Amino acid sequence: MPVTTADPNIPSKRVTAEYCSAHFKQTPRNVSMLTRDFISDSLYNPAYGYFSKQALIFSPKRAYDFGSFRDSADLLGTVGRQYEEMERELDDVRNIPRQLWHTPTELLKPWYGRSVARHIVWQHKADCAARHSDDPLVIYEMGGGNGTLMADILGYVRDEEPAIYARVQYNLIEISAKLARKQLGRQFEGVRIVNKSILEWNERVDEPCFFVAMEVIDNFAHDVVRYNYETGEPVQAFVRVYDDGELEELYEPVADPLIKDYLSARAALPGTTYRSPALPPALYRRLRQQLPLAPNLTRREFIPTQTFQLCRVLRDWFPRHRLVLSDFYQLPDTVPDAVDAPVVQTRFDGSMVPCETYLVQPGWFDIFFPTNFELLKRVYDATCRRDAAGAGDRRESRVCTQREFAQDNAELERTRTRSGENPMLEFYENNKFLLS
């Protein structure tokens, strides 16, 4: 039980993240919500969410001339100095410290975006040849940030494939109104900015298209489940917010439809049966139950319910898509003693400070998750497997590392330092790609 001055017997109102966005300008009190709603509200509430008031994407003013650096350490030294300078400038003009983070799209621009473009163009040409068609290149990008990836992809197509560029259709789906306005300032033909959440998408796209999601699903909210040691049955977590702002994690039988559907879909995956790492084998559980004062619930498991929602959106509204998705598959300093746990961190006195719980003050902390790409591939294939080429084949997706993707698609001679080290191959080694 948390240290709280509130009466825990006073009933709390059950709310969702969508309800909080519509009704609260300050963090609510005396409410309860599922873990994914608490995390989503903490990150995305337009009045007090982390991405609304604190987060900024670090973007060098000019692309780096990689050949001018002695080695990767020399480059990182320059990046570090620019990062610190930008943080100081932000703190000087704002009364709250802003948090910066960098992405491969920004740090390795334009070459990272060009590698994505080369993959898309090659696949588009192969698909058109297989279909004996001359379809235009149609791209949907989710969460475009500063618009850098869009600019680099379209810049490549414009310069290297003018015939394809003449008919390209680029659609950028952006939940942030501020970022959507920023992206509108990018000057390219055939661009449409859609200011909405992809999880609210309701427009059917029947033509072949590419769906691009780079470093986005790490901030997709997860739910928490634990399992009964005796029966193996899961329970779902919800967060109680008391009158004094204290937070407590409580449990109840699984009743949420999305949690039920994800657990059912995972249990029904073809091939090897999936068993949660949080749930020990039955023999161990029976022996444990004989111990005095043994807990009746396992450790937490964070399950990617919003990423599962994305798979359903792709299945229902983008039936002929090819997916290009990249994100972290492992992270340091995650919340301890939990499966697929997030990193929860905030900036304090110039340093990033990790936390050991996600039960933190909404809006002040970044909460981001590693992705189990092998499990996501199986869930995605089971959810979205379809006649991808219109020729009766049922092709599965594939997972590759950042290095493997770069070796296949990047212009590596443009990102090599004088020592021969190559940031395109050596940076972001904790990233993977899911390609369909």
Overview of the structural elements:
The protein is an alpha/beta fold and 436 residues long. Helix content is 34%, strand content 20%. The strands form four sheets. Strands 1, 2, 9, 10, 11, 12 and 14 form a seven-stranded mixed beta sheet that branches. Strands 7-6-5-8-13-19-18 form a seven-stranded mixed beta sheet, sandwiched between helices. Helix 4 (72-93) links the parallel strand 3 and strand 4 (99-101). Helix 6 (111-131) packs across helix 7, helix 6 (111-131) packs across helix 14 and helix 12 runs parallel beside helix 13 (373-384).
User: What is the straight-line distance between the termini?
Assistant: 46 Å
What is the percentage of strand-forming residues? 15-25%
The DSSP helix count reads 15
What's the total count of β strands? Answer: 19
The major β-sheet equals:
7 strands, mixed
Q: Which residue ranges are poorly predicted, with pLDDT under 50 across at least 5 consecutive positions?
A: 93-97, 387-393
Radius of gyration: 23 Å
Assign an overall shape: globular
Instruction: Assign a percent range to the helix content.
Output: 25-40%
Structural classification: alpha/beta
Estimate the mean pLDDT confidence: 87
Can you summarize this structure?
With 436 residues, the protein is of the alpha/beta class.
List the helices and strands and how they pair.
Elements: E1 13-14, H1 17-23, E2 31-34, H2 35-44, H3 50-53, E3 55-57, H4 72-93, E4 99-101, H5 104-107, H6 111-131, E5 138-142, H7 148-160, H8 162-165, E6 169-173, H9 177-184, E7 191-194, E8 209-214, E9 223-227, E10 234-241, E11 247-253, H10 257-267, H11 282-289, E12 300-303, H12 305-317, E13 321-328, E14 338-339, E15 343-348, E16 351-354, E17 366-368, H13 373-384, E18 398-401, H14 402-409, H15 423-426, E19 431-435
Parallel strand pairs: 1-2, 3-4, 5-6, 5-8, 6-7, 8-13, 12-14
Antiparallel strand pairs: 2-10, 9-10, 9-12, 10-11, 13-19, 15-16, 15-17, 18-19
Helix pairs in contact: 1-2, 6-7, 6-14, 12-13
